[in-house]
Amino acid sequence: MSETRPHCLCKDHPAVSAASPAGAGVRFRIATLADAEALASLHHLCSREQPDGFLHLLGRPFLAAYYRILLRNPSTLVVCADSGEDGLVGLVSACLEVGEELEALRRGRYRLLLAALPAILRQPSLIAAVRLRMVSLRPGNAGEGFVVGHGPRLSFWGWSPCYPSAGLSTQLFLEMLRKLKERSVSVVSLEVDRSNRKVELIHRYMGARLVQEFVTKDGRKRLVMEHHL
Ligand SMILES: CC(C)(COP(=O)(O)OP(=O)(O)OC[C@H]1O[C@@H](n2cnc3c(N)ncnc32)[C@H](O)[C@@H]1OP(=O)(O)O)[C@@H](O)C(=O)NCCC(=O)NCCS
């Protein structure tokens, strides 16, 4: 592979050395609680490439609290791409049972709110969107209006825009599908915003089927897709 990485101008992600080829030394592994801060930074960075992404608007401290909750939840699995000296460059998060993950987030809602407070104070217009999501976490609401409420679910897939993936982003995603299959998952759902056409097409390219379209409670058109393993 002869491609070299461009110098990263992004202030909050480590610059990558132009000398080493993309992909060299990147290791896929299961993330642990110690990765929460790095996952938050990576998620925040990737979200800039995600039209209509929401969670990152609540700030990096919120994302760190979010990943600490997910990584403590036994039903959640996060697979990351670790480049060594450049840190984490890719992540896929999923849960075996979305109901358990939503319940973990519901139990952690005050920690999440506290972590999101600086972002909310900077941008009070976020309050309405946060309130709608809090309602969707209430017992019995099963994420209604935003996410699929039952069964295995993929929640986020990201690859650093500062680190050319050269096919590694899809390999990481396929690694997650393999890990889910090892855990006896046969179908996994995900949602993609209609505006995120590139990601919709990549999922189709990897074999996902469109099963439903809906409009979120804050007015975004979303697709529900399924990967059959
Ligand atoms: C989603 C994401 C991880 C994909 O990673 P990426 O490095 O940008 O992906 P690439 O451009 O390398 O494309 C991945 C593969 O899809 C293929 N692909 C890209 N655009 C495509 C399109 N429009 N149609 C069909 N295939 C496409 C590429 O050829 C590549 O195939 P390969 O792996 O066999 O080489 C990355 O874009 C990202 O972090 N986006 C922001 C966060 C986000 O929106 N996440 C999804 C919602 S949770």
Ordered list of secondary-structure elements with their pairings:
Blueprint (H helix, E strand, L loop, with lengths): L26 E4 L5 H12 L12 H13 L3 E7 L5 E8 L2 H10 L1 H14 L3 H11 L16 E7 L8 H15 L4 E7 L3 H9 L3 E7 L5 E8 L1
Parallel strand pairs: 4-5
Antiparallel strand pairs: 1-2, 2-3, 3-4, 5-7, 6-7
The site of coenzyme A has 18 residues, from strand 4, helix 6 and helix 7.
Plain-language structure description:
- This protein is α+β, with helices and mostly antiparallel strands.
- It has a single domain, classed as Aminopeptidase (3-Layer(aba) Sandwich), CATH 3.40.630.
- Helix content is 37%, strand content 21%.
- The protein has seven helices and seven strands.
- It has a seven-stranded mixed beta sheet, sandwiched between helices.
- Strand 4 (153-159), helix 6 (168-182) and strand 5 (187-193) form a beta-alpha-beta unit.
- Helix 2 (60-72) packs antiparallel against helix 4.
- The longest helix has 15 residues, at 168-182.
- It is globular, with a radius of gyration of 17 Å.
- It binds coenzyme A.
- Residues 46, 49-50, 156-159, 165, 167, 169-170, 192, 196, 198-199, 201-202, 205 line the site of coenzyme A.
